[in-house]
C-alpha cells in the first residue's frame, strides 16, 4: 500500500494537472461578500471570505497530496509549510521546485516552504505567533501527538474506516459493482471500503456468495466478525476498528439497518459510509443517522473525493 501511494505514473500526473486547472478556472474564493447587513443607519456589517494565514500541513507518503495542497493554498491566498513523509522526499522536493518556479514574483517564491526534516516540526509547532493552523494527515497517534505539542489550532484527520452496508432489499448486481469498486479500485486510499456489513437475511444467498467469490477472485482476503466467522468459517478479525489499506476487509452480518448504523457509529471513523438498498425509508434513516462526513446511498465510498465533488482537489479534511 505504501508503494501504491508513492507511485507517480503518467496517468496520475495528467489527472493532477487537470485538477490544478480546475482550481485555476474556479471563481476566486477570496474577498467574496457572504452577507451584508445594515444593522443601524449608516452602520454596515459585512461578512467576507478571507485566507486563514499560514498553514503547516503534515501529510503522508503520497506526493500527489503535495500538489493538491499547494494548489489549494495558492488559490485561497494562504501561506504554506509542507512536511511530507520521508519515503517520498525526493519526489516532494522536485514537485515543490516545479510549483515554486512558476509562482510569479508579485506573489513570492516563499509562499510555499518545504520542511525536509522531522526534527524541524517540534520547533515549528512553537511558532503560534506565525503559523495559524496545523493540519496533520495521518494516524490518530500522529494527530494526538501534534495536538499535545502545540498551542496552534489543529485540524485533525485520522482514520479512513469506511463501511458499505448491504440491506436486505439491495439489488445484488449493483451491490457487487459498488463493493468491488469500493475495495479493489484503490485499496490504499482512505476512502476505500474496510468493512462490509450485510443484512442477516442475505447470508448463504446466491447473490452474496457470488459477491464474495468475486472479491476472492480479485485477491481480497476476507476476515469475519463473530457472526460471519461462525457461519462462513472465515478467519476471525481481531478488531472492528481496523484500517487495512490493502486487499483485505472485514465482513459481518447485522440484524437490520439500525444495527448497521449502530455498528458504524461505534466502530467507524466518521469518514465515508454507504448503504445499498432499494428501500427509501431504510436509505433515509441511514443517511440521517450515520455520523460521518460523507454518507452515500447506492454509490461507492471512492466517490468521496474533492475532485469528484467538483472542488478541484482536497486536503483530506
From TrEMBL:
One of its GO terms (biological process) is L-proline biosynthetic process. One of its GO terms (molecular function) is glutamate-5-semialdehyde dehydrogenase activity. CDD domains: ALDH_F18-19_ProA-GPR (cd07079). Pfam families: Aldedh. It comes from the Eukaryota. Pathway: Amino-acid biosynthesis; L-proline biosynthesis; L-glutamate 5-semialdehyde from L-glutamate: step 1/2; Amino-acid biosynthesis; L-proline biosynthesis; L-glutamate 5-semialdehyde from L-glutamate: step 2/2. Coiled coil: none annotated. Residues 11-203 form the Aldehyde dehydrogenase domain. Keywords: Amino-acid biosynthesis, ATP-binding, Kinase, Multifunctional enzyme, NADP, Nucleotide-binding, Oxidoreductase, Proline biosynthesis, Transferase. It catalyses: L-glutamate + ATP = L-glutamyl 5-phosphate + ADP; L-glutamate 5-semialdehyde + phosphate + NADP(+) = L-glutamyl 5-phosphate + NADPH + H(+). In the N-terminal section; belongs to the glutamate 5-kinase family. In the C-terminal section; belongs to the gamma-glutamyl phosphate reductase family. PANTHER family: DELTA-1-PYRROLINE-5-CARBOXYLATE SYNTHASE 2, GLUTAMATE SEMIALDEHYDE DEHYDROGENASE. This is Aldehyde dehydrogenase domain-containing protein. It comes from Eremopyrum bonaepartis.
